[in-house]
Recover the amino acids of this structure.
């Protein structure tokens, strides 16, 4: 058994490193998709490719009829230059698996390997959904659903998987209720009237006006929304002007707004619109805003979350699963699966401080303890067999 485990660890580590060295952005996951499809085909699964452009779906049919559970992993990388110096460092400039999707994909392939060994005793079906473009809205989940990924056979539950450096190796976590937030983008333009920096009275300074707008927007979390309700607004880019002694004509501000209820989402976005349109007028300027609604809040089903907790504790031992009710303020298009069928997300701990694997998602030094690949696969396999064996 130890030899089998060691062989599986080596195989999954090699798969993950192959994917990591050849990262691909959203809807460009050509080589990743080919590797996934070949691996699933070699296992004897039914495989469908080009689902919503680059998505891959594998179906494992058990020996007996029953329900269908689906597992989802995202495949895409990020436009980040990797700073790690490892044998499996990204070979593509400015593209990196900085969110661990290479790990998510590999865990799901490992799950398929384990469940294929139990095919003759399975009651029902398992779908393996490898989704493109989670990182870039509108994302890949919605298109896969529209193309029928939850049908033929009809899916009764979906479990997502994601590696997590907030939790150490050997641990897992699951949330009850909101898992991630509404993730909306805002694009603000403050228009003024440019001129000489020594004569600001003859100008309308959009940089000064922007400072007032930014201050007002950042005041919303502390003075406009209940302090116990999760809400984040971040302005991540400000651009305006070309040199030190010229007042520019306009300033551009890009940001994101994260909320967990529709009521707060609508109220906050309307208040930001009022700030942008009214404050500049006080200084004879003009403000406009464009809002792009992003992924909706992802709600984990209580029953599926309980199943995840139960199975992970059975696999990893007592006190190994962290259970939370406070959402991450990140965005996740797994929300579209959760809107259709009971769903939840398993977070697999891959943090290892001794190895320096402590960096968060989207960091240029993100890496993972690869023992989490086998751990995640075993947990998902147990979730599948438990779900399919119950009435």
């Amino acid at each position: 058994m130890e030899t089998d485990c060691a062989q599986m660890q080596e195989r999954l580590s090699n798969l993950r490193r192959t994917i990591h060295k050849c990262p691909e952005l959203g809807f460009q996951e050509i080589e990743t998709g080919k590797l996934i499809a070949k691996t699933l085909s070699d296992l004897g699964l039914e495989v469908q490719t080009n689902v919503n452009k680059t998505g891959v779906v594998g179906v494992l049919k058990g020996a007996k009829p029953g329900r269908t559970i689906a597992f989802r992993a995202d495949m895409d990388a990020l436009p980040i230059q990797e700073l790690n110096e490892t044998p499996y460092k990204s070979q593509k400039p400015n593209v990196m698996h900085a969110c661990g999707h290479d790990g998510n994909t590999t865990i799901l392939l490992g799950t398929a390997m384990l469940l294929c060994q139990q095919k003759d005793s399975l009651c029902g079906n398992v779908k393996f959904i490898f989704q493109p473009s989670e990182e870039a809205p509108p994302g890949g989940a919605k298109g896969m659903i529209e193309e029928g990924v939850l049908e033929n056979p009809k899916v009764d539950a979906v479990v997502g998987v994601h590696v997590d450096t907030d939790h150490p190796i050997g641990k897992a976590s699951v949330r009850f209720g909101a898992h991630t937030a509404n993730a909306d983008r805002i694009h603000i333009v403050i228009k003024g009237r440019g001129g000489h920096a020594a004569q600001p009275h003859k100008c309308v300074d959009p940089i000064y006006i922007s400072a007032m707008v930014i201050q007002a927007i950042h005041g919303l979390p502390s003075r406009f929304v209940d302090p116990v309700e999760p809400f984040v607004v971040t302005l991540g880019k400000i651009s305006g002007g070309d040199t030190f002694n010229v007042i520019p004509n306009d300033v551009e501000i890009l940001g994101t707004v994260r909320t967990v209820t529709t009521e707060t989402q609508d109220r906050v976005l309307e208040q930001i619109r009022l700030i942008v349109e009214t404050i500049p007028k006080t200084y004879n300027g003009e403000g406009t805003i464009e809002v792009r609604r992003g992924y909706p809040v992802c709600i984990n089903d209580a029953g599926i979350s309980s199943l995840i907790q139960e199975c992970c504790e059975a696999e990893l031992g007592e006190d190994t699963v962290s259970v939370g009710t406070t959402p991450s303020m990140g965005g996740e298009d797994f929300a579209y699966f959760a809107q259709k069928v009971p769903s939840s997300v398993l977070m697999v701990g891959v943090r290892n401080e001794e190895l320096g694997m402590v960096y968060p998602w989207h960091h240029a030094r993100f890496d993972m303890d690869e023992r989490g690949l086998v751990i995640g696969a075993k947990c998902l396999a147990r979730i599948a067999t438990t779900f399919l064996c119950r009435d």
User: Anything to note?
Assistant: Residues 238 and 253 are 5 Å apart (CA to CA). The chain has two domains: 2-180+297-389, 182-292.
